[in-house]
Amino acid sequence: MAHRTNAVPDDHSGTRRFGPKHRACDRDETVAERTPVEYRGVAPGLPHRGMLLGARYILLDSIGRGASGWVWRAHDERSGRVVAVKILAPRHGRFDEVDATRMLREAAALTRVRHPNVIELRTQGMSACGTPYIVMEYLDGENLRDLLARGRVPLDEALSWGGQMLGAIAAAHHVGVLHRDIKPANVLVTREGRVKVLDFGLARLHGLGHGAESESGGWTGRLTDRGALLGTPATMSPEQLLGEDADTRSDMYSVGCVLYHLFAGRGPVSGKATRVVYEHVYVEPIPLRELAPAGTPQSLCDLVHACLSKDPAHRPTSRAAALEAAHWNAQSGNSLSRATGTLRRLLGTSERRGPDRPKSARWLESLRRLVRH
Question: Is 181 a catalytic residue?
Fold first, then answer.
């Protein structure tokens, strides 16, 4: 859902509504070095409209709820901008240590992955009441799940959005971040047509750091029992569904599921949960070339087929896939500023120019700087 409010509401007197009524426990402290064990204990009061975090973020309204927390829209008193705040939710009146660890890991993952197509982390903290949270950029747009629910998108938008998603995943893998929950709901398209990959809550980080797109081993921080399913079955790889460890090749299978849906207008598997698992493990999907719109590059269909291989060894690396996506868009004359028509129509936005596509040399130099750090 798009959220259009970009300012703190005022009351009729013209003074800011939330200024003088902050609770005493709504101040916070940084948790950059805090360990998950320190989150144990009785959970504080729930987040509420007007709550102040970090002496600067005023909660405005709830915009989402997941298994382990809420996402609130908030106003940054220092910058004047709207931000998104993910707040840990208690389970049975207490914070769960695994949930807290995952929130810290999401912050660590986003600190590593600085890329134009990945949601930006602003800060992390914990209120004096003991509520952990992370602050991210606020994005105005819709996720692919909701966009695709209204029908297939034109080919140029699909090419642009798919290419941007692949660039984000390649950047994450390069710095040793495994997403593990790539799905249409976690890929958002802004009003300007820029893709943002979201929700690194299930991410795992590679112990070797930069340049860690390895094909096996090295992924740190197991938080669940071996064999436990963690992710979304509709886009999970066969090996994950069979309880095996995930690596970058597992992410690429999920990428293949999203690309297939983006170009075919439907996912590669369907049905109830047991049927979905069976098809992922044993059934080859209908070839994308039979469902994709006219003009879809054959190399794209071949790439998606490779991503959806049952054998991880036959899947492409994210870097190779991103380079192929750049070729599709160059061949079609696609650019970020041109690939916004569908989103404007769906969201009812006025015509406005999107951000300029970065020059190749500047883009590559920016990528080199991000990789070095």
Answer: yes
The residues, any chain, with a CB within 8 Å of residue 251's CB and separated by 6 or more, are 169, 173, 178, 179, 180, 182, 318
Q: Over the stretch 253-277, which tens digit does the pLDDT of each residue have?
A: 999 999 999 999 999 998 888 899 9
| List of residues 6+ apart from 244 with CB closer than 8 A | none
Assign residue 204 the CATH number of its domain.
Answer: 1.10.510.10
How many whole angstroms separate alpha carbon 238 and alpha carbon 240?
A: 5
CA neighbor of 251 nearest in space, from 326, 165, 139, 185: 165
Neighbouring-strand partners of residue 199 = none
Dist CA 135 CA 8 (whole Å): 17
CB 256 within 8 A of CB 307: yes
Are 125 and 146 within one domain?
no
Kindly name the residue from 181, 199, 247, 251 that is annotated as catalytic.
181
- Assess whether 35 and 91 both reside in one domain: yes
DSSP assignment of 288-315: GGGTSPTT--HHHHHHHHHHT-SSGGGS
- Per DSSP, the chain holds a count of helices (H) and strands (E) of 10, 12
How wide is the angle at C-alpha 136 spanned by C-alphas 130 and 137, nearest 5°? 150
Share of the chain above pLDDT 90, in %: 52
Q: Looking at the structure, do residues 88 and 171 belong to the same domain, yes or no? A: no
pTM of the model: 0.76
Same-domain check for residues 110 and 219: no
Same domain as 180, residue 63: no
Based on the domain organization, do 127 and 205 belong to the same domain? no
Parent domain of 69: 30-137
Residue among 214, 205, 150 nearest 178 (CA): 205
Strands 69-76, 82-88: pairing is: antiparallel
